Amino acid sequence: MANSETGTRTNILSGGEYQVFLNFRGCDIRRGFADTLYHFLDSAQIRIFMDDAEIGAGEIIGDKLMQAINDSKLYIPIFSPRYASSHWCLIELARMMENISISKEDENKKVILPIFYDVEPEELKLKPEEHNLQRPSYHDAILNLEEKKVNQEKKFSTEDVDRWRKALREVDGSKGFKLKDHLG
To answer: What is the pLDDT of residues 9-55, one digit of tens each?
Structure first.
């Protein structure tokens, strides 16, 4: 989605149409932290993809999301309590991690900068024995998605679920920011 501003923006990060792709569970943080981060990055003249700001009515969402991920250099997934209950968040995360793996051999290396918003990095490990009784775990959310059915058939394949689990395990190994450590 090119616009007249794109040519005048500073190329802080090399990459495609977008420099940064924001990935988050909308109902958890869209009207708060995600909007604030988007506007902060935008004011620094960084070209950010955020779904509701970049996808117009009538556009095919999945195609646009995957293209934006492929075109971005920096990925910022914002992990919140209900993040793993969104199959779209997990689909996007899996694509990001695949792109990072592929780009390791390229001079145009892609980078991930996870933010942990009201969750601990350990929650991504998907271990049921570390279940937090105060809220559903990422492990439980993935199991719920795995069991979802449409007309008596599984909605998501075993391969899809395995990709999501692998992506969560891989991002768990990345250095990120625990938001609570940076708030006063």
So the answer is: 333 444 468 999 999 998 778 788 999 999 999 999 999 998 766 67
Q: Which residues are catalytic?
A: 92
Nearest to residue 171, comparing CAs of 70, 66, 100, 104?
A: 100
pLDDT (tens digit, 9 = 90+) per residue, 56-100? 666 777 888 899 999 999 999 999 999 999 999 999 999 999 999
Domain boundaries, the chain: 15-182
Q: Which of 105, 91, 113 is nearest to 13 (CA)?
A: 113
86 neighbors 25 (Cβ within 8 angstroms): yes
CATH superfamily of 15-182: Toll/interleukin-1 receptor homology (TIR) domain (3.40.50.10140)
